Amino acid sequence: MKIGIYPGSFDPITKGHLDIIERASRVVDKLVIGVLDNSEKKPMFTADERVQLIKEAVASLDNVNVEAFHGLTVDFAEKHGAKILVRGLRAVTDFEYELQIAQTNHKINPKLDTIFFTTSVEYSYLSSSIVKEIAKYNGDIEPLVPSNVCKAIYDKYK
Fold this sequence. Notes:
- The chain has about 160 residues and is α/β, with parallel strands linked by helices.
- It is about 40% helix and about 20% strand.
- The chain has helices spanning about 15-25, 45-55, 75-80, 90-110, 130-135, 145-155, and strands spanning about 5-10, 30-35, 65-70, 85-90, 115-120.
- The protein has a five-stranded parallel beta sheet with strand order 3-2-1-4-5, with helices on both faces.
- Helix 2 packs antiparallel against helix 6.
- The radius of gyration is 15 Å and the shape is globular.
């Protein structure tokens, strides 16, 4: 069974993330979305909230699971028996950073490889930070995030 891990903070998950999730779910038998619970950051949503929002957004994908984790991604992957890490690339600027991370993860665990998915053109500009910035000033984020996430973000800013 090919198991893939798609790690990230997903604060919040965007339609760009969902694009990667849907496409990656067709390449692996099981895809685990690993929601990083990083105590060093001040996220908009708790890890549990992010997990719930993502579960709702990917409910139609039978081979996708979602769970929070902290620590090293390689350890999370090993816990799940995964040999594949999934990462998304929006632009060339993402590649250098992602390549370093992929090479480091492979050095730590040589059985773990990273597959890069380039984001679909309509989401190439999109990031969680941009979504939060737009929402902060009451801009329209509905085209950028799933509807359940849109509501949750606006509720946070109220």
